[in-house]
Design brief:
2 domains, alpha+beta, 21% strand, 261 residues, five-stranded mixed β-sheet, Outer membrane lipoprotein wza fold like, three-stranded antiparallel β-sheet, wza like fold, single chain
Length: 261
C-alpha cells in the first residue's frame, strides 16, 4: 500500500502541472472544449467616452482664419507623461459628454466617432467662421491594458485597427500558465462598463465580436489551475515529494520496526 502511494504521487503532480498543446495553441478548429463563435459585425470605429482627450487641428490657406484655434504645444507625448502641460492643447470630454471649443461653445461628442466630430466642426466653421477649412480630430488617449496571468502592461495603440492577437504580441504573448480559454475583456461603453469572456484558442475568433480591441480596453488573463496550486516546476515538486516520502518512511520504520529484527 505504501509503495503504491509513493508511485502515485508523480502521476498526481503531472495531472496538475502538465500543459497540453490544446491549452496553448491558437487558431484551433472548433471541437470539444474549443468554441465555435458565430460570425458577427467586424471592426467598428471607437465611440468617444467621458474623460477622453481629443486633439483638434484646423487647417486653412488663410492663416488668420485659424490663428485662434491651433495650439503650438506639442501633444504627441501625451501617452508618455502625466504632466498637465501636455494637456493644455487638448479637449477633455466632460461628464455631460461635451467639449468646449473656442468661439463655438459646448459641442456634444459622447458616443460619436472622431470622423463624425470632424464633419460637424467643419460644417460649423464653414457656416459661421471661415469657408475653406479642414479639421482633423484624433483621440489622444488611444491605449489598452493587459493585466493578470503574469502580464501587466499598458500599450499605446499604433493605429485604430488592432486585433486581439496583435495586442498580445505587443506585450510579448501570454506565459505558459495563462488561461487562454477564459479571457476577459473589460470595455467602457456609452451605456456603461461591459465584460466579455471569450476563448483565444479558436480560429473562429477572427470573425467574432472579440477580434478587434478598442481604446481603453482592459484585457484580463486568469491563471490556470496548475499555476494556482503552485506546481510550476514538476521536477522541483517531485523532488520535494520524494524527500517527504523518504522522511515518512524513516519515521515509519522507527515507530514500527520490522518483526524480523
Amino acid at each position: 500500500m505504501f509503495r503504491k502511494t509513493v508511485l502515485s504521487i508523480p502521476l498526481f503532480l503531472c495531472m496538475f502541472s502538465c500543459v497540453t498543446t490544446k491549452s496553448l495553441n491558437y487558431m484551433q478548429k472548433p471541437s470539444d472544449g474549443i468554441p465555435n463563435y458565430v460570425d458577427t459585425v467586424g471592426f467598428s470605429e471607437y465611440a468617444v467616452q467621458k474623460g477622453d482627450y481629443l486633439n483638434i487641428r484646423v487647417y486653412s490657406l488663410n492663416k488668420e482664419d485659424i490663428a485662434l484655434y491651433n495650439c503650438n504645444e506639442n501633444t504627441s507625448d501625451y501617452n508618455n507623461t502625466d504632466e498637465a502641460s501636455s494637456r493644455l492643447c487638448l479637449y477633455v470630454v466632460d461628464e455631460q459628454g461635451d467639449i468646449y471649443y473656442p468661439y463655438i461653445g459646448s459641442l456634444q461628442v459622447l458616443g460619436k466617432t472622431t470622423r463624425q466630430i470632424k464633419s460637424e466642426l467643419e460644417d460649423m466653421f464653414k457656416r459661421d467662421i471661415a469657408k475653406y477649412v479642414s479639421v482633423d480630430v484624433s483621440l489622444v488617449n488611444r491605449s489598452f491594458s493587459v493585466i493578470g496571468g503574469g502580464v501587466s502592461k499598458r500599450v499605446i495603440m499604433p493605429h485604430d485597427k488592432v486585433t486581439i492577437f496583435q495586442a498580445l504580441a505587443m506585450v510579448g504573448d501570454l506565459p505558459m500558465y495563462a488561461d487562454r480559454s477564459k479571457v476577459k475583456l473589460v470595455r467602457t461603453t456609452v451605456k456603461g462598463t461591459v465584460v466579455k469572456v471569450f476563448d483565444l484558442r479558436t480560429e473562429k475568433i477572427i470573425n467574432s465580436e472579440y477580434y478587434y480591441i478598442q481604446p481603453n480596453d482592459v484585457i484580463y488573463i486568469q491563471q490556470t489551475v496548475a499555476k494556482r496550486v503552485g506546481v510550476a516546476h514538476l521536477a522541483n515538486a517531485i523532488s520535494i515529494a520524494a524527500s517527504t516520502v523518504s522522511l515518512g518512511a524513516i519515521i515509519y520504520k522507527f515507530i514500527f520496526p520490522s518483526k524480523n529484527n
